[in-house]
Amino acid sequence: MTALLAAERTTLSLLPAPLLRTLPAAVAENVRRVRVGTDARIMAVVKADGYGHGAVAVARAAVGAGAEWLGVTDVAEAVALREAGLTEPILSWLNPAGVDAVEAAAHGVDIAVGSVEELRRLVVDADSPLRVHLHLDTGMSREGCPLDDWPELLRVARQGRGRVEIVGVMGHLPCADEGDPRANEAAVLRMRQARDAVLRAGFGPLLVHLAATAGALTDPATHFDLVRIGAGIVGIDPSESIALTGASRFTASVVHSSSVPAGTPIGYGGTHLTTRPTGLAVIGVGYADGIPREVGEGASVEIGGARHPLVGRVSMDQIVVDTGDALFPRGTTATVFGPEAGAVPSVQEWARWAGTIPHTIVTRVGARVQRSIA
Ligand SMILES: *Cc1c(COP(=O)(O)O)cnc(C)c1O
C-alpha cells in the first residue's frame, strides 16, 4: 500500500509547483510608479481574476498602496471583492445583458452604461438609486455609446432621475498601448465634448476617466479625474516606457532527467533532434498550465541559475529543456517566469517568444496551478 501511495504522489507531483508571488510588494511598487506621474485618482482594475494573479489579493495590495477605486467587468466580480471585505468604490463595465441593478446598488457597485437601451433597462430595473457612469465610444466601436446618441442617452438619464444617478463619464483609448500622445487627441476631444454635454444636462459633479495603464504612464492629457490601471498593477507596461515590477513567479519542478546521444528526437513529431550528447529535463508544466504552445526560438526556463532552452513541442502537461552538460535531479525547481530578470525569463520575454502580449501570458496560467501569495 505504501508503494502505491508513493506512486500516487508521483502523479500528483507532475502538477506544477506553486505560482509563488511577491505580489503585495510588487503591486504597491507599481501603484507608486503610477502615482508619481499623475494627480488623478487611481482605479486598480482587477478583472479576469486580477489578470490571473487573484483579484482579491491584487485589490488588497493596490488599496493598501493607495488606490482609491477598484474596477471589474462583472457585478459578480465586484460582489466577491465586497465579500472579501473591500469597501472602496467599485465600477463594473461591459456588463452582460440582464445585469442585476438591485444587486449592484445593494453592494454599492457603480455600473458603466454604454448604450441607450442599457440605460433604459436599468431605469426600469433599479429600485434604489443606482450609480451610473456613462460610457462613451471614444473610437473603438466596442462597448461605449457613440457621441451622436448622447442627446437621447441624457434624455433617458433625466427621466430616470431618482433611479439612476449619473456620477461619471468614461471612455477607453483605442491606441492604448502606443504611448504616442497624438494618437489620443481625438479621444480626449470627444471625452471633453461628452463631459460638457452631461454637465449642460444638469448632472454633476462627475468623475471623468479615460486612461488605462499606457495613457496613465505616457500622456497626462488623458488622465482627467481618474486612471484605470490593470496591466500596470501587475507589472506590465503596454507602452514599454517604464520598468514596472512583475508581480508573479511561476515555478514548476523537474519530473524526469536523462542524458541522450546526438540525433535523439524530442517530443511529439520529433520536431527537434539533439545535435550533440546532452542532458534533458522534463518539466511538469504544459499548455494546460499556460505555457504557450506557439513559442518559437529562444524560449527557455531557469534551472540552477541558468537558462535552458525548450526543445521539441510543448505538450499539454510537460515541456522538455536541453540542459547541456548539467543534469538536474527530479524535484529541482525550474522557474518559468519571474520578476528578477537575468537568468529568470520575464513575462514580456514569454510574450515575445509566443508572438503575443504579456497580458495573455499571465491571464492564461491554468486552473490547476496552485496560487500562493508570497
Ligand atoms: C481592461 C481595461 C482597463 C485596464 O487596462 P490596462 O491596459 O490593463 O491597464 C482599463 N479600462 C477598461 C475599459 C478596460 O477594459
From TrEMBL:
Q: Which cofactor does it need?
A: pyridoxal 5'-phosphate
Q: Show where the Alanine racemase C-terminal domain sits.
A: 247-374
Keyword DNA repair included in the entry's annotation: no
Which pathway does this polypeptide act in?
Amino-acid biosynthesis; D-alanine biosynthesis; D-alanine from L-alanine: step 1/1
N6-(pyridoxal phosphate)lysine occurs at which residues? K47
| Database matches in InterPro entries | Ala_racemase, Ala_racemase/Decarboxylase_C, Ala_racemase_C, Ala_racemase_N, Ala_racemase_pyridoxalP-BS, PLP-binding_barrel
Q: Could you tell me what reaction this enzyme catalyses?
A: L-alanine = D-alanine
Q: What's an example of a GO molecular-function annotation for this chain?
A: alanine racemase activity
Instruction: Give the EC number.
Output: 5.1.1.1
User: Which of the seven top EC classes does this enzyme belong to?
Assistant: isomerase
| Alphabetical UniProt keywords | Isomerase, Pyridoxal phosphate
Record Pfam families = Ala_racemase_C, Ala_racemase_N
Q: Which residues form the active site?
A: K47 (proton acceptor), Y268 (proton acceptor)
CDD domains hit by this protein: PLPDE_III_AR (cd00430)
**What does the entry list as the binding residues for substrate?**
R142, M316
- Which NCBIfam families does the protein's record reference? alr
Function (record text): Catalyzes the interconversion of L-alanine and D-alanine. May also act on other amino acids.
Tell me the protein family, please.
Belongs to the alanine racemase family.
Q: What is this protein called?
A: Alanine racemase
Organism field:
Microbacterium luteolum (Aureobacterium luteolum)
The primary gene name is alr
